[in-house]
Design a protein that fits this description.
The complex is a heterotrimer of chains A (174), B (430) and C (123). Chain A is mostly helical and 174 residues long. Chain A has six helices and no strands. Chain A starts with a helix and ends in an 8-residue tail after the last helix. Classes of the chains: A mainly alpha (174), B mainly alpha (430), C mainly alpha (123).
């Protein structure tokens, strides 16, 4: 094993362990913090794979935006300090089964689909900004455009859901 | 040799030296800025500022640095202890990364070793700086939450919402620069400003960046998260002793990082300013001179921060968010589109021109649709803002200013100075 | 330090330097400071008056919507960066331009919707 491989495996272990802690911890805000750790470790994995743009995007979007969104969501309802007792329900075994099955499907698909695909790590230009840009805007235009529609739909949904509280009063509003 | 090759050749002692220099640069500049801020704000408010320790009070930051570790630390009983301790670490550690990718100067020779005055020149340097800033948000949110009291929590949430809102405007302003350089590496960005600086060539983007950088660092006039009159001291109300100092240092290092970033992106980085750059065959753009220009420009940007604080009153939160989302973000989007079209105009065929013209018309329609949003607030309506307590309307009508004669104006000016001097309450480390 | 891994090693090194600095400062602080807690001191400071009632505030749903806008526009900015590096390169041309304009158009519709629904004004 090379040094890069060892680091990669270690980071993977950190990501997995943090992910398990997310669902087992009894403190809501701590769960979000473990999620940050997990995402951070995944970003570092991308870095080790020389996909630097993707790695920093992971930090910017997932660590910097999505988890902050989650934190705001938690604080919107309730963010008690200390453990919460009602975080576990009796559905635990069912949840474990579903989680393991999902993971199994994903791993199988990935391994069967890309099990023998190799990327040459010696050539970092594939992971650079211009490399990714060239790929997206040459070959993956449709997913890119669909993404914008998805984002728009999500935004409209969030606004509609939150509107009862923040919109202008219902009389005079068209 | 190119920048990357020169950097790859660095021996280990040189790398450690550079790391040490960056670390010291960050800390020393932060200390000097604290001192300069207190002196300058004092001058702007007609009072002396710190003048007891050392000549001109120069040793004041050092005295504070010696004093603070000896202070008792009080962790409130309601706090979530682990997160409470973690928050300062998260606030300060990532700030230095921003300085690692900044180019401080061109090729020089240190003890016979040719190198570039920069620690690393990452091909995605710009993103690294933005990502480091977005990690810093956690320090603030967690500090506010873990204190277990309402004011810090509100301060932390405000601060996070503020930083992320203005990070968008900042990112879009940076995209305008990338459109010209086609590279995310800060070294390349400086190299492509040999002629005209982007601050002039892309003035709207520069302006947006300036506003966004003040909003992003939670500084006056956008220092809402620590608005003393509303939130005591914001997210660090419950912090004392060294942990408070760490938040304080983190704020100043963040200021230095965004200043350095603005300098690199828009003010030509380490390039000599215009009349000087003409002297003697680029003499002032080689060797160690550029470092002087770079640090000088950072100093100017920091002075700008202090000047703003001494001049402008604090924004209201609704005004602040309105400025961010209704002005800065749309303007920067429009600017990016316009800049792109200008960039590729000569390559465009008739179809291309038609498509962009159509897009512009759509954009205009969109802008027109936004105009009638301004509606008169219904008279007598008391808006409810959480909790169910009636509060004074947030869009309070300010009576229009009466016309003043010259004499009355000078009198009023004098009164304001006195008021400003008396009001000052948060001067430096207490 | 050489190449790609060396460069990121240095970034990690600087992160470690920052963390070590904080740790050393806090440890020194722990050794130097006095610790004489009394029940009165350990009350939350808040604004100087003894706190009354439970110590937590609920945040407003507005914050959530603004964060959502941030996520949407962060994704937008993240695609703009690689696009800005390639859009003028030979072989991309008008199509790439139009693709990005369509993308921006959808997002503009989003911010327009938020604007018209009064989400962007705080009051």
């Amino acid at each position: 094993m090379t040094a890069a491989e060892i680091v990669f495996v270690l980071l993977g272990v950190v990501a997995l362990a943090a992910a398990v802690l997310v669902v087992t911890t009894r403190q809501l805000v701590r769960a979000a913090l473990y999620l940050v750790l997990s995402f951070g470790a995944i970003a570092a994995c991308f870095l080790v794979l020389t996909a630097e743009l993707v790695a920093w995007v992971q930090v910017l979007i997932y660590v910097g935006a999505v988890v902050v969104l989650l934190l705001f969501g938690i604080m919107l309802t309730r963010a008690p300090i200390g453990p919460t007792s009602d975080l576990d329900s009796r559905n635990r075994p069912a949840a474990i089964v579903v989680a393991v099955a999902t993971a199994g499907v994903l791993v199988t698909v990935l391994v069967r689909g890309f099990g023998d695909a190799y990327v040459d790590l010696g050539e970092p230009s594939t992971g650079s900004a211009s490399g990714i840009g060239a790929n997206i805007f040459r070959y993956w235009v449709l997913p890119f455009e669909i993404l914008s529609v998805l984002l728009l739909a999500a935004l409209v949904g969030a606004i509609v859901l939150s509107r009862t509280d923040i919109g202008p009063p219902k009389d005079g509003d068209g | 040799m190119s920048r990357a090759e020169l950097l790859a050749d660095d021996p280990i002692w040189l790398i450690l030296l550079k790391v040490l220099c960056i670390f010291l640069f960050a800390l020393l500049t932060a200390m000097i800025t604290v001192w300069a801020e207190r002196r300058l704000i004092g001058r702007m408010q007609n009072r002396p500022g710190p003048n007891r320790v050392g000549p001109f009070g120069l040793l004041q930051p050092i005295a504070d640095a010696i004093k603070m570790p000896f202070k008792e630390e009080i962790v409130p009983r309601t706090a979530d202890k682990v997160t409470y301790r973690l928050a300062p670490v998260l606030a300060l550690s990532p700030t230095m990364i921003g300085l690692a990718v900044m180019p401080f100067g061109p090729e020089v020779s240190i003890f016979g070793e040719r190198t570039v005055l920069q620690l690393v020149d990452l091909p995605v340097g710009v993103l690294v700086v933005l990502a480091a800033a977005s990690i810093g948000v956690y320090g603030v949110v967690l500090a506010g939450w873990s204190s277990g009291t309402p004011y810090p929590l509100l301060g932390g949430l405000r601060s996070a919402a503020q930083v992320i809102s203005y990070e968008i405007a900042m990112g879009l302003a940076i995209v305008a620069v990338i459109l010209q350089t086609h590279s995310l590496s800060l070294g390349d960005i400086v190299d492509s400003q040999q002629g005209l600086w982007f601050g002039i060539a892309l003035f709207p983007a520069f302006f947006i960046y300036l506003v966004a950088m003040v909003g992003e660092t939670n500084r006056a006039p956008f220092d809402l998260p620590e608005a003393e009159s509303e939130l005591v001291a914001g997210f660090h109300t419950e912090y004392s002793s060294m942990k408070f100092v760490i938040f304080y240092i983190a704020e100043y290092i963040n200021m230095i990082v965004v200043s350095a970033m603005g300098t690199t992106l828009f003010l030509g980085g380490y390039m000599a300013p215009w009349p000087i750059s003409l002297i003697g065959d680029n003499y002032f753009n080689s060797g160690w001179w550029p470092m002087l220009w770079f640090i000088g420009k950072i100093g100017l940007a920091l002075f700008f921060f202090i000047w703003l604080r001494g001049t402008l009153p604090r924004y209201r939160y609704d005004q602040f968010m309105k400025l961010g989302w209704k002005f800065l973000v749309p303007i920067s989007l429009v600017f990016i589109v316009a800049l792109t079209v200008i960039n590729v105009f000569d390559q465009l065929s008739t179809t291309g021109i038609l498509i962009s013209a159509g897009f512009f018309i759509l954009l205009l329609i969109a802008l027109v649709m936004m105009i009638p949003d301004r509606r008169e607030p219904r008279a007598g309506r008391v808006p409810l803002s959480g909790g169910g307590y009636p509060v004074p309307p947030i869009d309070l009508q300010i009576p229009s200013k009466p016309r003043r004669t010259k004499q009355a104006r000078s009198r009023a000016g004098r009164r304001q100075t006195v008021a400003a001097g008396a009001k000052e309450g948060d001067d430096g480390v207490s | 330090m050489h190449g790609y891994f060396g460069a990121y090693g240095l970034v990690a090194l600087l992160l470690v330097v920052g963390a070590v600095f904080v740790t050393v400062a806090l440890t020194a602080n722990r050794l130097l400071r006095p610790a004489r807690p009394t029940p009165q001191k350990l009350l939350t400071y808040e604004c100087g008056v003894d706190p009354v009632g439970g110590g937590w505030a609920q945040s407003y749903v507005r914050y959530y919507v603004f964060t959502f806008l941030y996520v949407v526009f962060a994704v937008d900015a993240v695609f703009l960066f690689p696009w800005a590096t390639v859009f003028a390169a030979p072989g991309f041309g008008v199509a790439t331009l139009v693709e990005m304009f369509v993308f921006l158009g959808f997002l503009a519709v989003g911010i327009l919707y938020a604007w018209r629904k009064g989400v962007l004004s705080w009051a």
